[in-house]
Write a sequence for this structure.
């Protein structure tokens, strides 16, 4: 019985070696579906997008209206600034899009100071809420 087990193991090992030997050498040289340079470019683009989004939110939060809103809500700018960097990519992208829209509307005169203050307070609420739910 012991001899049969050894025979089965050695037969399986031989079959595995033959299977590897039969595999064409060119099959191992094929390029992957996504190249390493493409992956690097995608990672760099994602990092750049996140940095741009953080900058848009921080620009809104560093405005005079935002500083007044944070002071009235007893929020420290440093804590809010740190909270922005801890947001998920999705939450940050949404908040950045709203920040850019609010800034362009304010610059074009489509919204008043009071409306801008409400937008800033809502943005601060989103940042605080997102961090509290983590």
């Amino acid at each position: 019985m012991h001899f049969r087990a050894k025979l089965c193991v050695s037969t399986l090992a031989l079959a595995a070696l033959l299977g590897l030997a039969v595999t064409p050498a060119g099959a191992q040289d094929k390029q992957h579906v996504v190249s390493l340079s493409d992956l690097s470019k995608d990672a760099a683009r994602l990092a750049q997008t996140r940095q741009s989004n953080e900058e848009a939110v921080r620009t809104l939060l560093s405005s005079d209206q935002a500083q007044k809103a944070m002071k009235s809500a007893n929020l420290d700018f440093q804590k809010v600034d740190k909270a922005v960097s801890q947001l998920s990519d999705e939450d940050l992208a949404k908040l950045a899009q709203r920040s850019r829209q609010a800034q362009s509307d304010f610059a074009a005169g489509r919204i008043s100071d009071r409306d801008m203050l409400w937008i800033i307070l809502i943005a601060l609420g989103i940042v605080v809420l997102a961090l509290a739910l983590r």
